[in-house]
UniProtKB/TrEMBL annotation:
<dbReference type="GO" id="GO:0003924">
    <property type="term" value="F:GTPase activity"/>
</dbReference>
<feature type="binding site">
    <location>
        <begin position="343"/>
        <end position="345"/>
    </location>
    <ligand>
        <name>GTP</name>
    </ligand>
</feature>
<keyword id="KW-0963">Cytoplasm</keyword>
<dbReference type="InterPro" id="IPR042108">
    <property type="entry name" value="GTPase_HflX_N_sf"/>
</dbReference>
<keyword id="KW-0547">Nucleotide-binding</keyword>
<keyword id="KW-0479">Metal-binding</keyword>
<comment type="subunit">
    <text>Monomer. Associates with the 50S ribosomal subunit.</text>
</comment>
<dbReference type="Pfam" id="PF16360">
    <property type="entry name" value="GTP-bdg_M"/>
</dbReference>
<feature type="binding site">
    <location>
        <begin position="253"/>
        <end position="256"/>
    </location>
    <ligand>
        <name>GTP</name>
    </ligand>
</feature>
<dbReference type="GO" id="GO:0046872">
    <property type="term" value="F:metal ion binding"/>
</dbReference>
<feature type="binding site">
    <location>
        <begin position="318"/>
        <end position="321"/>
    </location>
    <ligand>
        <name>GTP</name>
    </ligand>
</feature>
<dbReference type="GO" id="GO:0005525">
    <property type="term" value="F:GTP binding"/>
</dbReference>
<dbReference type="GO" id="GO:0005737">
    <property type="term" value="C:cytoplasm"/>
</dbReference>
<feature type="binding site">
    <location>
        <position position="213"/>
    </location>
    <ligand>
        <name>Mg(2+)</name>
    </ligand>
</feature>
<dbReference type="Pfam" id="PF01926">
    <property type="entry name" value="MMR_HSR1"/>
</dbReference>
<comment type="similarity">
    <text>Belongs to the TRAFAC class OBG-HflX-like GTPase superfamily. HflX GTPase family.</text>
</comment>
<keyword id="KW-0460">Magnesium</keyword>
Length: 459
C-alpha cells in the first residue's frame, strides 16, 4: 500500500460547481465565489458542469475529475474547492486522483468562520464545529491512519493512530462543551438583568452581506467591523443606543444567515441566534440591490421559523443608493409598518426607519406632563433609565415636573406599577387618554437596574 500525507493546500484555488438536477435548490455560483473570496483564496479557474445526481466515487464524473486534475497541474493550484458537500470518501478519492487538497462547502464555510471569530465564545463555537466536522473524516494523511505507530507515552500498546486521534478529539470536544456551557450561563445572567430593566432589544438579522453591521454602526454611531466579505460578524454585538421616540434600546448585531449552512454550524451557533429570540423587534436587513434577495429573504425566514423567533419583524430593504428606490415606509395596516427602504451606507431613509421602529415598539408616542409626588422617586428613576424624559423642573411646592415622550400604553403600565392614579399626576386631558385599561397594572414591584450594570453588559 502506498502512503502519502495529505496535501497542504494553499490560497490558489480551482473552483468546482455543478448543477445537480436532483437538487431542487442548487447553491448559487456567485455566492460561492464570494465565499471563496471571503476565505481569502484567489480563483484560478472555475470548472462547471451538470449531472443528474452526484457520482458515488468522485461526486463529479470520472471525466470531469480528470479535467479538474488537468486544470490543477496547468494552473499549479494549491487547492480545489467544491461548492457542494462531499462525503469523506469522495474527498479522499478526489485527493488521491487530483493530487491536490480538496475542500468542500462545509469546510470552506468553517474556514471562514474560523478566521472571523473574534470573541471567546465565537472561537469556542467554531472549534467545536470544526472538530465535529473532522470527526467524520480524520485527515492526518489518508492512508497512515490505520498504521500502527509507536509513540512514547502517547497511547496504550497496540492502539492505532486513528484511535488516538479519536480519543484526543473526544477529550477536546468535551472540554469545549463545558467551556461553552459556562459562557452560556454568564450570557443568561446578563440577559435576565437586561429584561428586568424594561429596555427593549432590537436585533438586526439577515442574510450575510446585507449590510447589518453597516446599519448597526450608523445606528450605534460606532465602529463595528463591516467589510465586503461574507460573515464579517460572528458574534452578537450589543450596544445601548437612544432611539428617537422610544428612549433607550439595546441594539444587537448578529451573524449573517446563509443558505445550506452546514449542520454543525447551525447547531453550534444557536447561542448567537438565541439573542434574536429574546428581541422585542427584529430588523430583517435585506440587500435590496441583490438579484437573489427573494431567495435570501426566504432563507432567513426559514431559519427564523426554525428557531421559533416570534418577535415582530420589520423588513429593511437596504442599499437603495444602488437599487435606486426612494426612502419610504410601507404599512400593512394603519400604524403597523412592514417595510422600510434605506441606505445604511449613505444614511438615506434613517428618519423613516426611526419612525417605523418607534411605531412598532411603542405603538405611537405622545408627550405627557407629569407632576410627581415626593414618594414617586422610583418612577422618576425608571423614566430616566428608559431615556424618555424631555424636560425636568420643580414647581413651587418642590414637586418634580417631567415632560416625557413615550407610548400611552407604556406610561399606563408604569403608573399602574407604581400605584399612581393618572388624574393625580397628569393634566385632566392627558389623564383621560390613559384611563381605560389602567386596572391591569397594579404590581408595585419594579426592578431598577443601574446604568453601570447595563453598560458593562453592553460593553
Ligand atoms: N451600496 C451600498 N453598500 C452597502 C450598504 N450597506 C452596506 N453596504 C456594503 O455591503 C457590504 C456588507 O456590509 P456589512 O454591513 O458588513 O454586511 P453584514 O450584513 O453585516 O454582513 P455579515 O456580517 O457578513 O453577515 C459592505 O461592503 C458594505 O459597505 C448600502 O446602503 N449601500
Ligand atoms: Mg456583519
Amino acid at each position: 500500500m502506498q502512503y502519502f500525507d495529505r496535501h497542504d493546500g494553499g490560497e490558489n484555488a480551482i473552483l468546482v460547481h455543478l448543477d445537480i438536477r436532483e437538487m431542487s435548490d442548487p447553491d448559487d455560483l456567485e455566492e460561492f465565489r464570494l465565499l471563496v473570496h471571503s476565505a481569502g483564496a484567489s480563483e484560478l479557474a472555475i470548472i462547471t458542469g451538470s449531472r443528474n445526481k452526484p457520482h458515488a466515487k468522485y461526486f463529479v464524473g470520472t471525466g470531469k475529475a480528470e479535467e479538474i486534475a488537468q486544470a490543477v497541474s496547468e494552473h499549479d493550484a494549491d487547492i480545489v474547492i467544491f461548492n457542494h458537500n462531499l462525503t469523506p470518501s469522495q474527498e479522499r478519492n478526489l485527493e488521491s486522483l487530483i493530487k491536490c487538497r480538496v475542500l468542500d462547502r462545509t469546510g470552506l464555510i468553517l474556514d471562514i468562520f474560523a478566521q472571523r471569530a473574534r470573541t471567546y465564545e465565537g472561537k469556542l463555537q467554531v472549534e467545536l464545529a470544526q472538530l465535529n466536522h473532522l470527526a467524520t473524516r480524520l485527515v492526518r494523511g489518508w492512508t497512515h491512519l490505520e498504521r500502527q505507530k509507536g509513540g512514547i507515552g502517547l497511547r496504550g500498546p497496540g492502539e492505532t493512530q486513528l484511535e488516538t486521534d479519536r480519543r484526543l478529539l473526544q477529550i477536546r470536544v468535551g472540554q469545549l462543551k463545558t467551556k461553552l456551557e459556562k459562557v452560556k450561563q454568564t450570557r443568561k445572567q446578563g440577559r435576565a438583568k437586561r429584561q428586568k430593566s424594561d429596555i427593549p432589544t432590537i436585533s438586526l438579522v439577515g442574510y450575510t452581506n446585507a449590510g447589518k453591521s453597516t446599519l448597526f454602526n450608523r445606528l450605534a454611531d460606532d465602529n463595528i467591523y463591516a467589510a465586503d466579505q461574507l460573515f464579517a460578524t460572528l458574534d452578537p454585538t450589543l450596544r445601548k443606543v437612544r432611539w428617537a421616540g422610544v428612549g433607550n434600546v439595546v441594539l444587537a448585531d448578529t451573524v449573517g444567515f446563509v443558505r445550506h449552512l452546514p449542520h454543525e454550524l447551525v447547531e453550534s451557533f444557536h447561542a448567537t441566534l438565541e439573542e434574536t429570540l429574546q428581541a422585542d423587534l427584529l430588523l430583517h436587513v435585506i440587500d435590496g440591490a441583490s438579484d437573489d434577495r427573494h431567495e435570501q429573504i426566504e432563507a432567513v425566514n426559514a431559519v427564523l421559523a426554525e428557531i421559533q423567533a416570534d418577535a415582530p419583524i420589520l423588513l429593511v430593504y437596504n442599499k437603495i443608493d444602488k437599487s435606486g428606490e426612494p426612502p419610504a415606509i410601507y404599512y400593512k395596516e394603519a400604524g403597523v409598518p412592514s417595510r422600510v427602504y434605506v441606505s445604511a451606507r449613505d444614511g438615506l431613509g434613517m428618519d423613516e426607519l426611526s419612525l417605523a421602529v418607534s411605531e412598532l415598539l411603542v405603538g405611537g408616542v405622545a408627550q405627557f406632563h407629569l407632576t410627581l409626588p415626593y414618594h414617586a422617586g422610583q418612577l422618576s428613576n425608571v423614566l430616566h433609565e428608559l431615556g424618555v424624559i424631555v424636560a425636568r423642573e420643580f414647581d413651587e411646592t418642590g414637586a418634580e415636573c417631567l415632560t416625557v415622550s413615550l407610548a400611552k400604553s407604556k406610561l399606563q403600565e408604569l403608573l399602574g406599577k407604581h400605584g399612581l392614579k393618572p388624574f393625580d399626576v397628569l393634566p385632566p386631558h392627558e389623564a383621560a387618554m390613559l384611563l381605560p385599561e389602567l386596572e391591569e397594572f397594579e404590581k408595585p414591584d419594579v426592578a431598577v437596574v443601574d446604568d453601570d450594570d447595563l453598560d458593562e453588559f453592553c460593553r
